[in-house]
Amino acid sequence: MSVVVGVLAVVVVLLAVLVVGLLRSHAEILRALHDLGVNLEHGAPTPGATAFELRPGPAATDRSGRGVAPAGTPASERISDQGVALPEDGPLGSAHDLRGVTPAGDAAAISVRGGRGLTLLAFLTSGCASCLDFWEAFRIPGNRAIGGADANLVVLTKGPADESPGAVAELADPELVTLMTTEAFEDYSVPIAPYFVLVDSSSGGIVGEGAASSFDQLASLLAKALADGGHDPAAPRSRREVLRGLRRATADEALEAAGIGPGHPSLHEDPHSDRGSGS
Amino acid sequence: MTERLRGHGISCALLPGWDIRIERRAESPVPVPGSTEPMGGSTYPVLHAGTSPLPARRGDYGSGYVETMTPADVFVCLSEFDPYDGIEDMFESGMTPPLRANDFHPDAQQRVIAGMCGAQRFFATRRRAFGLYVVLGSWLQRVPLVDRANQLLSTIEIDLR
Questions:
Q1: Which residues of A lie inside 8 Å of B (Cβ-Cβ)?
Q2: Domain range for B64
Q3: Does the complex come out with an ipTM higher than 0.85?
């Protein structure tokens, strides 16, 4: 009898150790997710700041609980409890060309339809605290390629009637394309700044929109969204694409090393001619 | 009705696919000693239009942009001069007529870029003097590209000084 009790006690101790180990592992996973900005606790507020996403087409998917306002919600009401703008549920619309004035007061028109590549529209103000992070970040040239190497960045503020041109001029880097236009805020139904809209200029359609509370968060969300949408140049490529890319680079480098560039006469010679054979 | 962009007494239609700026560089607040002229001279408006995104910083004749043009792109630069320049023979009287493909030549660029070509005209209208400089992204494709340039140029209107 005492032997059975002893064996059971050992089994209980072993199970207790196993349970403690599982609980500890669970806690570590939760902590890691929390560090990544994911809160799985019941009743946790939906983080509107992580609402930026690419939507693949006109067929809207259910994003309830993911920081998206129901379709038909007026722009003025699409603001989360944390004061972050929420995109509207439903199919994404078409892009609108932009017209306004520069911070210096000059007339400007920017076409975002019928062009090439992607255009990231950053709707900012000179006053909001979280916008300051983006103004600062966009002073660094490398950060302006946040939408990809070939993507254009256009920063938009409200027009001179609603925003101080002097304050905007002070915040905007001279090399940053900055346009003051209240019309654009209305055209794109921007609830509150900061807000971001990604446009595919070749199709003239909006491919994603949403908010982020910091530049780092926008960069992270945008990189994931671009990769998901197949726009990320750094996205995994097929073996054939990788091999073709390597082969092209190798051939170009070899030609360049030999002093043969675009337009070199040797590239236009008939490969079947016997010129230079010496006979 | 096509919407228009207006600034500094110059306007043009907002055609799809065109980035347009009508700007005037800031003048020095410091006058030349013994004169009311600003140090560095007076500045006059300039219209820049391109068929791809214009960078925030560009030279008067498009440097900073023309280097990024593809063979499908067009750049239009309309620079105003001192109105007294308009009486010189170099400036034709009246609004300049449409450009022709034969007006373009690779050597007519401010800074020659292989494969591209440019054209320049000077004219005076509405008591104002202008220089028109157009760059096409492809010398070989100049016929369709000059049509695109003319589409925009035909919409430009100048106010009386």
A1: 97, 99, 102, 104, 106-111, 113-116, 119, 152, 174-178, 263
A2: 4-24+43-158
A3: yes
